[in-house]
Design brief:
Largest sheet: 4 strands, antiparallel
Shape: globular
Number of helices: 6
Number of strands: 12
Strand content: 15-25%
Structural class: alpha+beta
Radius of gyration: 19 Å
Strand order of the largest sheet: 1-4-12-7
Length: about 250
Amino acid sequence: MSAATKMITVPPGRVTLSDRRTRRSWTVELAPYRLGAFPVTQALYARITGERPGTARGDRLPVESVSWSDAVRFCNALSLNDGFTPVYRLHAEAEGEGEAEDVEWDASADGYRLPTEAEWEHACRAGTSGPGYGPLDEIAWYRDNSHGRIHDVGGKRANLWGFHDMLGNVWDWCWDVYDAEVYGTYRVLRGGGWFDEHWSCRASARRRSHPSFQVDDVGFRVARSVVDRTDRADRTDETDRARGTDQAGRTLP
């Protein structure tokens, strides 16, 4: 497995999220899941989509200038490439535009997806409780040390669970809607980027943007649910019997 596609299994846990704007906090219980050790690179994105968005060029640079909708479509394409079931269902009328409200998450699918922001923060903290998982200059590319540019993934120290670039370099798109009542379909961004001051590169910092937004310090990393294949097979068999067919589409007695 190459560094570009390396996935790490994250243990179950509990994370308390907070929003400074509303002064609200909430706790989320998490089952085990898998998350990319690195942000998706330009090389991986180009191999799967045939496209190289962004302002910089380099196979090991994080892909950037990708929207939330681009990231969703990439997850489905990578799932198909690797023989998994795509997680996201894009309504036919939205396939070209990929609007957030027209994307559904199939929780039974075993393919790649965006992490929830709770999953992102749990993996970022890796059991720590401070603003970061180490001295910022050792773990992140940000305004004070990036020299005004993006950097190859993995150039800074990983956290205790093996994740690189959780803070700094590029912001990561997450699945979650930020605040539907105030911001509509705007989605959550986490982690801070190469152009940000230190206060934006914190494990708890939240940012938001429209799902079509593209800029040179926003990328993403992929996640996968830990699916119980036996349970899924049982549920599939039950569904097929209810329809009167087996998994190959043959009529059952």
